[in-house]
Amino acid sequence: MQFGYGSAALLLAACCLCTAGHACKTIEQRFKFGNSDVYLRLRRGDKLQYELMKGSSLLQTVTLDNFVTSSNLEATSTGGFRLSDGSTTIEFSLVLSSSSVTHVRVVRDQVVKGTQPRDCVRLNKGRVHWFGGSEQKQHYWPVERQQYSNFSYVPKELGNMGVAERYWLNSEGFFLFVDNTTPLFIDQNAAGLEDQLCISAFSALPYDRWLSSSKFSYYLGFAKDAKAAHMYAVKTLLGKPIGYPDERMVQHPVWSTWALYKAEVSDAVVRDFAKQILDNGFENSQLEIDDDWEDCYGALTFRKGKFPDAKKLTDDLKALGFRVTLWIHPFINNNCTTIYKTAKDLGYLVVNQAGSADTQWWNSKPKDAAYLDFTKPAVQEWFSTRLKRLQAEDGIDSFKFDAGETSWVPTDPVLQGDANQTPLQITTDYVRTVAAFGDMVEVRSGQGTQDLPIFVRIVDKDSEWGWNNGLVTLITSLLQMNMNGYPFVLPDMIGGNGYNKKPPTKELFLRWLQANVFMPSLQFSFVPWNFDIETVEISKTFTKMHSDYTPYIMKMFKRATETGEPVNAPLWWIAPEDIVAQSIYDEFLLGDDIIAAPVIVENARNRDIYLPKGEWTDGNTGTVYKGPIWLMEYSAPLDTLPHFVRVGFKLE
């Protein structure tokens, strides 16, 4: 056995558990990090495990799958420990040990090409709840129910993974954060790995498969509860925004042409849409012209046949009180011949290892489009200059930036910068490029961009009720994004997108609107007046309610920039040790003072509501409740949004 040296403490204990005629099942080695009370314990059995302990308390057990060694831990000169299997070395280092937080880093110096080390933690479903992870189409909350098998962990179209931060948090105050330089694959509840979350590093697509070795680096954090752990992660790893989005986008609805008109937009359609909004007595923050306004996809010029005088249109809309925004994407279709040739000749398109730029997105056929290479500064400048022309010449106020995920690049892309950041870098660079257009910007993807003062839109939802990208997942996506450090969430269209020629029903539309009220912004495309007068009146009630709470929402925006706290947190945020609150998926907070409990089940006219500790005033009846308490079968007809405010709270 190797004993520690330098600032590391000596081996404290070792034991071998054997039975007659059988090999030892477990050997323990226990090492101490320097002068701290944090220990690393190595267990040998069917699989190698390490345990992190603080004093006599077990913090976490990690199974080292695909890692076999007879070597012992060796102390490093920096106070950590290393373990080698002959080709790869794992180094454990203590980042911080205090009375409130323990923070450990685990690094493999190199992962040899063709190998896939996998480190696993127990989910302990039924006892422990997990939060964070990626945005998902079928988005459960808490996230321990999700299933993945050797799943590449990057922002991608599959599963609506617009935001896929490498961060997980559990109800016991543990977090796991994986570096962006790791070619990360995950397994969760996979065959043979049931009730486990496993992270692995593998130099395979969609990552750079040409590297001779890759990195595998992650952090483990421990605090007294999930809130304390998350706030430490925000401070040290996730970051907080440097500013916040436009207040008018919070106070009044965004009106988009997309869900209602799809690609059937024109000067006449937009003018009529604006007239309908005003004639029906609704306020606006802006009118967003969505798909199919361009000459061709990627031209960034208005099609004269649809928009004969874009500047006249925007001038007229502004005279009516509208700001005008425009849908933008990072692609150029091949039939957009002039601009495509220019971009190709300049080397501005993402190409694969064979030099081909051919790719596909939802408005192209296979191999009929290209993705602009935002990892090149020249592309960032060229793209931005063309957008500024739209602002200067056509009167556009700002933009809705779509896509940005890594999966749109050609297979096996050649990107600029650190190869260990492929393909994540293109998402980061695209989002950072477009964020420069100011506080009215919205994006739908992100990668390490929590610092940006812009809205991040939830990826398109379907006009459905259930877990498969329906209304319930609007709330779970909201919570996931907030717990990944993105507090400025722009919910998707009220009522969903109406795909497959299936628009929302009146009931779904109104319940969706109610669910949006205590989120940061309202975004209409389907319109209340296409249903009936009752829908219009109920919609006005809730758009006014949202507007009334704007000062508080903006106060929470400001708080997010100061502390990094979420704007819309899960219910357990104000009661971290409440095991009931930890499991709630259909309620959420606005700040620390408002609980929203919208009805998200079809045909329901009541629901059960959980209130955590504190005194809460019913926003509908004025009744005061002392939590923790369940309110069973709370009455909620179609014109009622169950919500509660902390006793003593007053709107400014």
TrEMBL record:
Ranges for domain Glycoside hydrolase family 31 TIM barrel: 256-555
Enzyme class label: hydrolase
Record-level GO BP terms: carbohydrate metabolic process
GO molecular function: hydrolase activity, hydrolyzing O-glycosyl compounds
EC number(s) on file: 3.2.1.-
UniProt keyword list: Glycosidase, Hydrolase, Signal
Listed CDD domains: GH31_NET37
Keyword Hydrolase attributed: yes
Residues of the Glycosyl hydrolase family 31 C-terminal domain: 564-648
Protein name listed in UniProt: Uncharacterized protein
Gene name tied to this protein: Dmoj\GI22561
